[in-house]
From TrEMBL:
Protein name as it appears in the record: Chalcone synthase
One example of a Gene Ontology biological process annotation: polyketide biosynthetic process
InterPro entries to which the protein is assigned, alphabetical: Chalcone/stilbene_synt_C, Chalcone/stilbene_synt_N, Polyketide_synthase_type-III, Thiolase-like
UniProt keyword Transferase, yes or no: yes
Family of the protein in this entry: Belongs to the thiolase-like superfamily. Chalcone/stilbene synthases family.
CDD domains recorded: CHS_like (cd00831)
UniProt lineage: Bacteria, Bacillati, Bacillota, Bacilli, Bacillales
UniProt keyword list: Transferase
List of catalytic residues: 155 (acyl-thioester intermediate)
Zinc listed as a keyword: no
Domain spans labelled Chalcone/stilbene synthase N-terminal: 6-214
PANTHER family the UniProt entry points to: HYDROXYMETHYLGLUTARYL-COA SYNTHASE (PTHR11877), TYPE III POLYKETIDE SYNTHASE A (PTHR11877:SF46)
Gene3D superfamilies for this protein: 3.40.47.10
């Protein structure tokens, strides 16, 4: 019975404002012009992180250098406070999540009344009553829908939610779980020329993704059947990825050692997960950064085609924290449909503070449409 649990539908959504990487690099470098070393460093980071565009809910981030409150270098006066950023998060997160959720329900051919569990995921904002309550009401979910919030646990949380939903359906075969991930990462861009501020400014984007998990029926639009999952806390790495609440947004630190640590520890964890099976064909890697995709591609001898979905999402949208893994799976499904692939085994990987690694086996199955009997006729001959 467990083999029929699947991601039945996926939806993604982006805010209205597109950030062009090259143009933004010039504006950030201009904001740092009184510190030539930081200005040069900014251009280098923006160029090397393999991102070409991202999206933001904050139109001020597209303003000219003197008018952008997030780029202030000489003074914190005028820089948005954490309180102001959270007000923006509260205003913008719900419509974005609704958009992704409605697309996922439509893709899964599911009604709001079918949903028994709602898992909401975010690490870039908080308010109460939360996004879970707002989504439940505006989507028309049942008043007694089981609501679960995965809050402030980072980039791995999207895949963690998928794994959790599988276990929920294992325990209750009639369950149907709606997952909604909303991340407004650009609200936490920090002023200044330090490496950690510049790296975050160059890498992260805003987006929402959603999926429906439940028992697969005989007709579907292309699904990912969910296999066994595995979660692990990597040793001696608790200080390598840090996300703390500051006075001017959330302060992020990403160590340059993260790709090396992943390369050191993850091969053994993948072997533990696949348990003697052949190396999977499909690799849904959360693109937490170019270096993470690079090290995993090298360690496992993956082709460029096998890492293409992850690199495509990183290039076009940046790292959208927890929302990203469903963007990768959606892009992978699009490519598989184009190729006419009938079935293929895969593995999904995502990483977060801790360092935490989430791993999941899955199988892609091509769309199946069952013809309906002619109206007024008989299915028997």
């Amino acid at each position: 019975m467990s083999s029929s649990i699947a991601i039945l539908g996926i939806g993604t959504a982006l805010p209205a404002f597109r950030i062009d990487q090259a143009e933004t690099a010039e504006r950030v470098a201009d904001a740092l012009r009184e510190d030539p070393s930081s200005s040069r460093w900014a251009k280098k980071i923006f160029k090397q992180c393999a991102v070409e565009s991202r999206y933001t809910c904050e139109p001020n981030l597209l303003e000219s250098t003197p008018d952008c409150r997030y780029f202030s270098h000489t003074s914190l006066r005028g820089v948005p406070t954490t309180s102001e950023r959270m007000k923006t998060y509260k205003r913008e997160s719900v419509p974005l999540g609704l958009d992704a959720a409605r697309k996922a329900l439509l893709d899964a051919k599911a009604d709001a009344s079918d949903i028994t569990h709602l898992i909401t995921v975010s690490c870039t904002g908080q308010f109460l009553p939360g996004i879970d309550a707002a989504l439940a009401v505006q989507l028309g979910l049942a008043a007694d829908v089981n609501r679960i919030m995965l809050q402030f646990i980072g980039c791995a949380a999207g895949l963690k939610a998928v794994c959790l939903s599988r276990h929920l359906v294992l325990g209750n075969p009639s369950a149907k779980v709606l997952i909604v991930c909303v991340e407004l990462c650009t609200l936490h861009m920090q002023p200044g020329g330090g490496r950690k501020a510049l790296f975050a400014a160059a890498l992260f984007g805003d987006g929402a993704s959603a999926c429906v998990v439940g028992r697969a029926g005989s007709s579907h639009n292309g699904i990912f059947k969910l296999g066994t999952d595995h979660s692990v806390l990597l040793p001696d790495s608790s200080d390598e990825m840090v996300w703390e609440v500051g006075d001017h947004g959330f302060d992020l630190y990403l160590s340059p050692n993260i790709p090396k640590l992943i390369g050191r520890f993850i091969p053994a964890e993948v072997e533990r997960l696949i348990d003697g099976d052949d190396k999977p064909e499909l690799w849904a890697i959360h693109p937490g950064g170019k270096g993470i995709v690079d090290i995993l591609q090298d360690m496992f001898g993956l082709t460029d085609e096998q890492s293409r979905s992850s690199r495509c999402v990183l290039r076009n949208y940046g790292n959208m924290s927890s929302a990203t893994i469903l963007f990768v799976l959606n892009e992978m499904r699009r490519e598989l449909k184009e190729l006419g692939t009938e079935a293929a085994n895969g593995i999904a990987l995502a990483f977060g503070p801790g360092l935490t690694a989430e791993l999941l086996k899955f199988t892609y199955l091509a769309p199946v449409k069952i013809p309906e009997p002619l109206l007024g006729g008989s299915a028997c001959v």
